[in-house]
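Hi there. Long-time user, first ticket. I'm pasting a complex I've been working with (about 1162 residues overall). I'd like to know whether the download I got is complete or cut off, because the file seemed smaller than I expected. Thanks.
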Amino acid sequence: MDIRKLFLDNPWRKRVLFGDKKVGVCQVELTPTRLKDGSCRQNKPVRIYDNCGAWADPNFHFDTSKGLPNLRGDWIDERADTEVVGTLPTSAKNPFGGRKIRKAKSGCRPTQMAYAKKGIITPEMEYVAVRENLALINELESEMSPNAPRDSLFIQHEGSPKRKGFEITPEFVRDEIARGRAIIPANINHPEIEPAIIGRNFLTKINTNIGNSSMASSIDEEIEKMLWAIKWGSDTLMDLSTGADITDTREWIIRNCPTPVGTVPLYQALEKVGGIAEDLTWEVYRDVLIEQAEQGVDYFTIHAGVLQKFLPIASRRMAGIASRGGSIMAKWMLTHNRENFLFEHWDDICDIMSHYDVSFSIGDGLRPGAIADANDEAQFGELKVQGELCKRAWNFDVQVMCEGPGHVPFQMIEQNMENQLDWCAEAPFYTLGPLVSDIGAGYDHITATIGGVMIGWKGTAMLCYVTPKEHLGLPERDDVREGVVAFKLAAHACDLAKGHPASQYRDNVMSLARAEFRWRDQINLALDPERAEEFRMRNDKEFTRDNAGMHHCTMCGPKFCSMRASIEIKERFGQNTPTEE
Amino acid sequence: MDIRKLFLDNPWRKRVLFGDKKVGVCQVELTPTRLKDGSCRQNKPVRIYDNCGAWADPNFHFDTSKGLPNLRGDWIDERADTEVVGTLPTSAKNPFGGRKIRKAKSGCRPTQMAYAKKGIITPEMEYVAVRENLALINELESEMSPNAPRDSLFIQHEGSPKRKGFEITPEFVRDEIARGRAIIPANINHPEIEPAIIGRNFLTKINTNIGNSSMASSIDEEIEKMLWAIKWGSDTLMDLSTGADITDTREWIIRNCPTPVGTVPLYQALEKVGGIAEDLTWEVYRDVLIEQAEQGVDYFTIHAGVLQKFLPIASRRMAGIASRGGSIMAKWMLTHNRENFLFEHWDDICDIMSHYDVSFSIGDGLRPGAIADANDEAQFGELKVQGELCKRAWNFDVQVMCEGPGHVPFQMIEQNMENQLDWCAEAPFYTLGPLVSDIGAGYDHITATIGGVMIGWKGTAMLCYVTPKEHLGLPERDDVREGVVAFKLAAHACDLAKGHPASQYRDNVMSLARAEFRWRDQINLALDPERAEEFRMRNDKEFTRDNAGMHHCTMCGPKFCSMRASIEIKERFGQNTPTEE
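Hi, the file is complete. Here it is re-exported in full:
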């Protein structure tokens, strides 16, 4: 795989850095519009939230064995509340052995939540504030071209929920984190990440799941999937590996991933006891937590809300316990006739995570795996427990998000969000879909975006992608692209629906490019410019993305075109309109 | 293309006929479940609404030059209110010349609405009643297996809107048609169709657009797209051809299409005047209407609601007039400074259509083509006019549906449905998406399913599919498949969300198959069994759809599997569970 080409093949989309924190943004250069009166309107570049980190920097080494630069290294050092407690073991299968391991100094809690509660604005908070603003709002502050068809491209729709203020300030970020309404997953042992914020008052984020199994994939394939996820816009990445080389695979991923990385530590613990759920112990699990926290995992999915009392209910379900983590713990509880040890050791877990600023993603082990099981007593019972666990984690200053369903029919989705906001005290919700039907196998990325937009509109902070392979097999590289782009689209639709102050800017610029036949701009503003270009060229061999003056396409042909007619109509009403080249 | 193979490659999905009307249904045969106690549960076949007509009959001739059998021929004859008025002209490019043309006898209106208003239940009404019931409800009347995990697989969710009754009766169908709330598009010159009903109290339908342009495609390619649309489940088909052989292409399609066929007659009228919108006349247009009505087109999109007064508003839009028909009429009105001749001749048009039972699909020529233009004065102004036109058409006993948007952000979709129900007196709504963002180029089938489920939940009767090529080029055969399956999924999600009494049955059977590792059943119950099988096999080479006993997949591998653990949990709670083979 030519990584340089993967990230740098489009000369009109470039990474630019802003401010003293060097916040990376993707800048899309637009073509000018030539008008009938002979003048020319320059179209300002559009800045898009960028997830690629140094991979989009033409001066980067592009060598996965060397890893990413340590953007946060100095920030962590300067806080002087952590210390080096050892070095990572060396391994023949990864070149990152010997890296220093950091941990909180005794009595310290180096978490973003602890700082936020104390009123401290960290560099991470400053970074995300610039990042959330710059990507979208920058243009709005600039003077609009006098030739633009409206005074401002930004329109606030009636009925959209208003935000507190137009601009995301570092203080707003701090306040949201202190309240538990948003998190910046950022392990002190993962200084390579570009901080991202997850919360319902920020841009909706998406998560990509990758990971091998005992039956498929290798370290190289997983690294490739990770890079593809980043390229197409993934905001966070979960490594769900259960197969060979589990520790080395994770190390390669963490050292090369510019976004937060999450895991389900239970998967590795299960491998350590030979795949026998009933052989799991707290001690085995605890050691895995520490190993992964030392590596730099930014958030852990922990299925502590699956309690004994819910199992009889779950056993009567159509699809039982679809969550892997949930079913592992259920099996353990039934064998030992004891309460979930993750629940019993919750405070111990919080204590460990507070030493590294690992965030919780409290698992929904009883999420419905079938439409028939949606919103049942098992699911909502667990959600209430998730809420209690949230509040206990906050007592340790550990950042928390809650995981949500699952298979839920469209009309029952809203209830999930309402209950979560209520029971989990507004901790960010992070859902898998929901999938609005059970019969979409092969197309479940679509089934899941439909439900995802509904729940995102109502306040979900992050959507976990689903790929077309869901229910059928492990996703491969191309499935990652399908899933990530579909969910970028869904997340954007959520931002529009929530009335995010600036999210419509990109749609408006796109629509104007469409109305003015600026094909290159249409392609570069699309979520997947490569596919847009490929499709545009398919039955129109003369087309290239540089050929901006071609005023027709295969849909109508050269004779009559509704977009060209619309230009004539505008002209009839006295507007200065684009001209053919 | 091997048409026989296209329709008959799956031995477990068969067309079966019910009742004296020989209503075709797709029957999916399931594998039995072997239980731990040694017994075996037979899983009853699932019947699915079938759109394939004789193409799914193994005894059919499979020759597109011979066309489909005339299912409705006798029904039309027996009503004795129509007469043969001529024969279709012969053509070197199609073998169907010389076919007899029917028209109403003087003073007669042979429309389903006219019959319904008189209290007559037609064979078409009886057919759709059986079809809507059989596909889904049949199983519910049968005794559920005593081993099934619930008393009934059908669950009525709280908050679902209740329907009048459980069963669709012919009288209910008649009443809905008489009220204008549903239509059976069924031209007396298209006796080949299997009648389908479009209305919000019935299963949500989907429409497929095909058609050539002057730049792409041939008759053969369009026939192939038509057959693909039918195979994947399209309920109606629009031929939007604007290129060469426009009449012959339509003739081939109508004679071979088992679903209703719609057109935009304005496209052919424009070709007749050399593509010059201002040269259009009522006389040219009228002749096209009659030609197409005589061929057997079942519904016409007519952009009569685009009035002069809306043009100044539309000229200030971001994307102007995105509808091709709307922009043609706008250009004509501006050139002649006269009102839309389709509006002025509305009664003449109604009169013509009442002679053949062609249904209206009143076009939304001012549908928004950009998020920024959604729900504006031009769009809603036209919708009110559409409502007036509806009522005038009903005076002629002509069946009507209304077309709807377009590009609309998610939170503004509901208002469209509310206004349409109010202003158009509950005439069926038929929408294009809506697309919830402008930046999805290459993935706009997804952008459109998201909005489609929202508006379908609120009452839209039919969703027009959108393909991944939308905004980029004409769809090809594979795009038709992507679009149709995505929209079948969306329509099903709408039915679930509306609480359609039996739509959850298929999800439940699928989920039970999933929980019991009946892989062949999972594949055959999916909306696209071929893709499900292909994906399942991709990284699991040993898998075949006959290999139902393979109790793991590449997702978890053989060691621990949540679905297998769920079976163990059910067993712990005393249930008789499936066993490994």
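A couple of notes from our side: Chain A touches chain B through 122 residues (CB under 8 Å). Residues 141-157, 159-165 of chain A have pLDDT under 50 and may be disordered.
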